[in-house]
Every structure is written in structure tokens, then in C-alpha cells.
Amino acid sequence: MAGCTAPVRGHRTASGAADCPVHGGRYGRGYGGYSRYESPYSSSSYSTPGTSGYGRSTGVRSGNSGRPRWSPPGSSVVYTPTEMLALTPIRNSVENLANAPDLRDVFLCHAWDDRQGVAKELHDLLESRGVRVWFSEKDVGLGVPLLRAIDRGLANSKVGIVLVTPALLRRLAAEGIADKELSALLARERLVPVVHGTTYDALREVSPLLASRSGLNTAEDAMPTVAAKLAELVAM
Asked: In 3D, which of 215, 234, 236, 235 has the Cα closest to residue 79?
């Protein structure tokens, strides 16, 4: 009797499963069990990595995309499964703070060198979408240590956004933020990394705890799409 072809050809495609002499009859035609699944956050199906519709977000929703429960009807923003899992606890915190008075929507933490560049770009994109942003150029005094700025920003905002750039990596390494201090901030489920111009591997070298938190990445989405996702995340 012929053996199962899974070790050689796999069962990840319909043809591979159907041609298997052992399991072909079990899966039958139209098998797609490994290429799609149902998200617990959306009634829509979407593809896993390696299938069409996954990867860099173009801002156009396809039939294979997913939408978290807080994304409004008619939104064209595409979310990956990883983003949905990472942002759901943040959204829960936002909802718990819905009735808190005088809170900004977002605190934008960034390196000083980025204040007139990418940080201002993200700030302007967020404010253009009606997001109230705590921004160092307006709200944080000169010479305030990074950790204190993050702590104060989170205390006065619903969500903290850490803009991770090469400049921020240099600042994190220079200031030597302790893991236990950063851990206390991350435990609040209100901190979202936005990686730009660098990688999570590089971040892991200076802050393993921050790198362990999934967020958003401009290597996957253009900055306007990142801003759109953040705006949806904090909208009530």
C-alpha cells in the first residue's frame, strides 16, 4: 500500500491533499484547511502568511482580510491576525477609560532627533483624523528623561505610542532603562510600539521587553495606514 505523501509533498494545497493515496479521500476536493481560518475577532475569513491578501496593507480590504470589532463599518483598513491579537488588549484598556475626564487619546513617545521628522509626520496624520495627541513639542519639557516622559504621558493619555526608530534605539541604550521599569509600563496594556526605519531584532538588542510586544511596523504599512489603525484603536 502506498504511503502518505505529507512528508514529501505536504497537504497544504488542495492538489497535494487530494493526490495523497492515504488521505486524499478524507480531504476531498476544495480542501483549504491550512490556508484559511476564522478569526475570533471578526466574522470575516482571512489568509495566513504565504497566501494572497496578506502582508503589506494597501488600505483596500479584500475578501480574505480581517476586521477587529472596533474597526467601523465601511473602513478600508486591513489588519493582520498578529495586529488584531496585539491591539485587542490595548482596545480593552481604551474602553475601560472611556469615561475618564481630560485624557488625551494618544501619548506619542519619540526620540528628540525625530521631533521635526517622522514623529511630527505621525502626529500630524493622527490629528488630521481627530486624535488628540500628547506630543513633546507641545507638552513635554526639555531635559525630561525618557522613562519619566512615557510614565507621565500614559498617566494623561489613553494609549502610549512608542515610535521606535534608529534614534530612539540609541537613546534607549544611552539612558539604560531597566527592564523592571519598562515591564511596569508594558503591564498596563496601554503601550503600542510603532517600528520605523529599523527592526524588532535591533530593538531586542537594547530592550527585549519592548521588542516582545507586537505593534505596528512601517515596513508592513505606510505611515498613513499606521495612523489610520491607531485612530480606529482609540476612537469611541
From this structure: 215
User: pLDDT higher for 206 or 24?
Assistant: 206
Question: How many whole angstroms separate alpha carbon 93 and alpha carbon 63?
Answer: 30
**List of E strands, 17-113:** 36-38, 45-47, 104-109
**Is domain 62-234 in CATH 3.40.50.10140, yes or no?**
yes
Cα–Cα distance, 149 to 146 (Å, whole number):
5
Residue 125: pLDDT above 50? yes
Predicted TM-score of the model (pTM): 0.70
Q: How many CB atoms lie within 10 A of CB 134?
A: 25
Element (DSSP H or E) covering residue 75: none
Tally of CB atoms within 10 A around 15: 11
Q: What values do phi and psi take at 195, rounded to 5?
A: -85, 130
Q: Where are the domains of the chain?
A: 6-34, 62-234
Q: How far is CA 78 from CA 59, 186, 194, in A?
A: 6, 25, 16
